[in-house]
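Figure S7 source data.
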Amino acid sequence: MHAAVVRTIGQPPVYGEFPDPTPQEGEVLINVRAAALTNLGKLVTYDPDYSAGAEVPFVAGVEGVGTLQDGTRVGFAAQRPPYGSMGELTVSFAPLAFPVPDGVSDATAAALINPGFSSWLPFASQLKLEAGAKVLILGATGVAGKLAVQIAKHLGAGRVVAAGRNRAALEQLPSLGADRVVSLDQPEEKIAAEFAQEAGEHGFDVVLDYIWGRPAEIFLGSLPRSLEAEGEVRYVQLGNSAGPTATIEGNALRRAGITIIGTGSMPSLDIVKDVWERMTDAVVKGSLTIDVDEVPLSEVHDAWNRETPGRRLVFVV
Ligand SMILES: NC(=O)c1ccc[n+]([C@@H]2O[C@H](COP(=O)([O-])OP(=O)(O)OC[C@H]3O[C@@H](n4cnc5c(N)ncnc54)[C@H](OP(=O)(O)O)[C@@H]3O)[C@@H](O)[C@H]2O)c1
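Tokens for the predicted NAP complex:
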């Protein structure tokens, strides 16, 4: 088959020949139609924390959309190296191949999987988002953040505050459901003042943080320090586009009643399946949108490091 093959760790994959996969017990064989290029997909090609010791050569890509041998169109995760999602064929653990409804294109479904689940799964599982909750999205201008704004509103959040740098994307966020945007492209005192004003006396119920680094430090330092009896700020750490580390004052954590949650583990398959059905249904009904740029898989090498702010690049097979 043809595939996007990682031949050197840290280098973009090249389009070339790769042996066809043979499904093992519990797996399904998939004719791939579209595969999204996510930050996770990039991490797998160079970061040992994510590649689980995969040895080159291997096929790039983590998730995508394709057809089973009976013709059913599915969204899937490819998790058995060396077979990633960016090949003409791949294999997936059968329970992680979910039907894609009519009305959702291959590219949209492929683009939705990683960033859509990133907010909807914690909202539905650990967080059990309550109607009327006040939610802050840090990194709301990225693909995952823009979806998180829409998903929070769709699930009944009362107020969604969206923070990011990119001005054009910030301007788009109110039309996606943000009640207020906070620019991270201004002096730190102003950012902190806007966070503090939004937090008011009772802080936020939920924070989804896709960026970490300095913006997380500014936000956590800006919270009122008298919330211990009032409730809990559930702070979900999802990504670190702004920096791999953040220094947090102990006082801020205690006084502002913050619980930090990592989202490395997956909830039960029943929850994942239910969220996928609700998410794709929201796309069909027009209440969830994602901007995609489609590129032929044969152009993977040149497109790999292309900047597409707020839009998801999807390779079409
Ligand atoms: N845990 C999960 O399940 C999960 C799932 C999806 C994504 N993620 C992670 O979440 C992050 C965002 O993913 P994405 O798909 O939304 O990627 P993306 O579309 O490339 O968005 C990147 C985001 O990071 C922001 N950013 C980059 N550098 C920054 C800096 N120095 N300071 C402040 N903001 C900065 C961008 O802001 P501007 O555009 O405003 O510049 C944008 O909002 C990545 O780290 C990704 O690995 C995690």
